[in-house]
Write a sequence for this structure.
C-alpha cells in the first residue's frame, strides 16, 4: 500500500502541472480541483503543496503575477500564493501526457491522463490505453506462469493447495478487472473517435482526392 | 493459423458491426492459447473461423500450412484440386450445450463416431475419452443429471473422441466455481501436453487462463496477443512434430 501512495505522489506533480496550465491557482484550490476531477480517495489534502514545492525546485512552476500581486487572500484572511507553469513546465507536462504509461500500468497515472486529456488527439490516448491493455495481458500471463511453476514443485497439503488456489484466483480476478476496464475505455474512446470522424466526413469530401 | 482475419456484419441499414479486425493468431501442437474476452466480443466467431466453420471477410485461415478456403491465383489453382472433406479437417469445437438426443452420455459420444467406426469401436473410443477426462462414471448417466463441472468434462470428451489435432473450446467455465474452473483448465493443459493437441480456448474470466501457455485478449474487434518471445516456449517443442503449423 505504501508504494501506491508513492506512485500517487509521483503523479500528483503532473496533475498539478496540468491543472495549472488550465488555470493558475493556489494550493488550496488545487486540492479541491483534484478531488473534483480525479476523486478525493487518491490524494491526501496537502498533496498539492508538496507537489508544488517539488515543481518549484525543478523550475516547472513559479509564483504568478496576478494583477501586479503575487498573493491572494483566502477566505480566512491568510495570504495564498497563486502559481502558474513555466514554459519548461508546459513542455514537461505535454511530454508526460503523450508518453506511454509505466509498466505495470499504474491506475492512478492512467486516470490522471484521461482526466487531463484535452478533447483533441484521441488516437494517441487510444494508443496509450491499448499499450496498457497489452501490458496487463502480459502481466496476467506472467502471473499465471509463476503460479504454475510454484505449484509444480511444492509438496503441499490439500489445505495449502486450496489457499494457493484462492490467492492465485484473487490475483487473476484483479488483472481481469483491470483488463476489462481498459478494454471498455478503449472501445468507448474508439466509438467516440469514429463518431467525430463521421461528423467531420461531409467536410472532408470537399478536399481534393488523393 | 489465422492471419489478418476480418469479420463484420451489418446491423440495420446504416451500421456495421466489426467483430474481428486484422486478427492473427496461431496455435501450436501441445499448446493452450487462451483468448480472454467479455461477452459478445467475438469469442465464438473467432473459434468458428479457426475451426473452418465460418469464413472471414478477409484474411487467411490455414492448417498445416494449407489455406482452408479456396484461394485465388496461380497457387490456388493447385490447391483447388483438393477437396476439403469435413471428416479430415482435424478440428473439434466444444461448447456447453445439451446434446440433441437424450441418451446416456457414453452413447451420445459414441453415436457420431459410428459413421466412421464399427459400433463396438465407437463405444470403446467413447469410454476411453471419458476416462481421459476423468468422467468415466458419467457414461451411463444423462446430461440433465450432470453437474456443470461434469458437463464440461463430457463435452471435452466428446471433442477428443474424434482425435482432433486442434481443440476449440468455447467458454466452458462461465458457470463454474473456483475449484471446477481450475480443474478444467488443468485438464485441458494436460490433454494438450499428453496428446500433442493444440487448444484454443475462449474464456470470459481470467481465472480460467491459469493453465494456458499463451494469453490473448479480445475486445472491440482487436486481438492482443502476448508476444511469443515473452511467453515461455510451449510444451510442443518436446514432442515429435508431425504436423507443421505456420510460424509465429
Amino acid at each position: 500500500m505504501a508504494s501506491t501512495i508513492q506512485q500517487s505522489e509521483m503523479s500528483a506533480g503532473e496533475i498539478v502541472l496540468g491543472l495549472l496550465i488550465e488555470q493558475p491557482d493556489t494550493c488550496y484550490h488545487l486540492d479541491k480541483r483534484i478531488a473534483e476531477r480525479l476523486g478525493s480517495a487518491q490524494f491526501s489534502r496537502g498533496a498539492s503543496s508538496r507537489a508544488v514545492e517539488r515543481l518549484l525546485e525543478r523550475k516547472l512552476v513559479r509564483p504568478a503575477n496576478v494583477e501586479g500581486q503575487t498573493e491572494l487572500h483566502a477566505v480566512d484572511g491568510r495570504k495564498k500564493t497563486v502559481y502558474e507553469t513555466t514554459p519548461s513546465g508546459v513542455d514537461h507536462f505535454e511530454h508526460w501526457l503523450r508518453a506511454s504509461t509505466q509498466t505495470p500500468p499504474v491506475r492512478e497515472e492512467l486516470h490522471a491522463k484521461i482526466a487531463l486529456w484535452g478533447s483533441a488527439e484521441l488516437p494517441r490516448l487510444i494508443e496509450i490505453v491499448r499499450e496498457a491493455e497489452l501490458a496487463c495481458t502480459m502481466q496476467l500471463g506472467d502471473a499465471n506462469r509463476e503460479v504454475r511453476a510454484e505449484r509444480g514443485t511444492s509438496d503441499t497439503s490439500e489445505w495449502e493447495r486450496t489457499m494457493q488456489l484462492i490467492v492465485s484466483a484473487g490475483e487473476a480476478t484483479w488483472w481481469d478487472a483491470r483488463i476489462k476496464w481498459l478494454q471498455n475505455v478503449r472501445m468507448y474512446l474508439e466509438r467516440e473517435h469514429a463518431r467525430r470522424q463521421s461528423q467531420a466526413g461531409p467536410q472532408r469530401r470537399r478536399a481534393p482526392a488523393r | 493459423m489465422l492471419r489478418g482475419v476480418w469479420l463484420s456484419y451489418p446491423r440495420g441499414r446504416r451500421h456495421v458491426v466489426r467483430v474481428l479486425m486484422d486478427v492473427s493468431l496461431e496455435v501450436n501442437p501441445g499448446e493452450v492459447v487462451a483468448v480472454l474476452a467479455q461477452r459478445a466480443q467475438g469469442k465464438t466467431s473467432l473459434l468458428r473461423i479457426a475451426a473452418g466453420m465460418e469464413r472471414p471477410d478477409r484474411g487467411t485461415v490455414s492448417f498445416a500450412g494449407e489455406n482452408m478456403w479456396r484461394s485465388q491465383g496461380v497457387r490456388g489453382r493447385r490447391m483447388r484440386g483438393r477437396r476439403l472433406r469435413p471428416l479430415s479437417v482435424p478440428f473439434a469445437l466444444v461448447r456447453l450445450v445439451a446434446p440433441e438426443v437424450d441418451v446416456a452420455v457414453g452413447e451420445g459420444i459414441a453415436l457420431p463416431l459410428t459413421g466412421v467406426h464399427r459400433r463396438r469401436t465407437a463405444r470403446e473410443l467413447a469410454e476411453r475419452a471419458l476416462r481421459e477426462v476423468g468422467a468415466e462414471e458419467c457414461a451411463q448417466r444423462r446430461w440433465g443429471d450432470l453437474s456443470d463441472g461434469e458437463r464440461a468434462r463430457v463435452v471435452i470428451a466428446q471433442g477428443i473422441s474424434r482425435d482432433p489435432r486442434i481443440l476449440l473450446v468455447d467458454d466452458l467455465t462461465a458457470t463454474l466455481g473456483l475449484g471446477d474452473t481450475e480443474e478444467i483448465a488443468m485438464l485441458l493443459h494436460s490433454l494438450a501436453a499428453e496428446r500433442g493437441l493444440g487448444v484454443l480456448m475462449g474464456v470470459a474470466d481470467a481465472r480460467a487462463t491459469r493453465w494456458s501457455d499463451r494469453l490473448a485478449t479480445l475486445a472491440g474487434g482487436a486481438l492482443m496477443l502476448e508476444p511469443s518471445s515473452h511467453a515461455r516456449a510451449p510444451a510442443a517443442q518436446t514432442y515429435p512434430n508431425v504436423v507443421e503449423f505456420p510460424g509465429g
Notes: Residues 1-5, 205-210 of chain A have pLDDT under 50 and may be disordered.
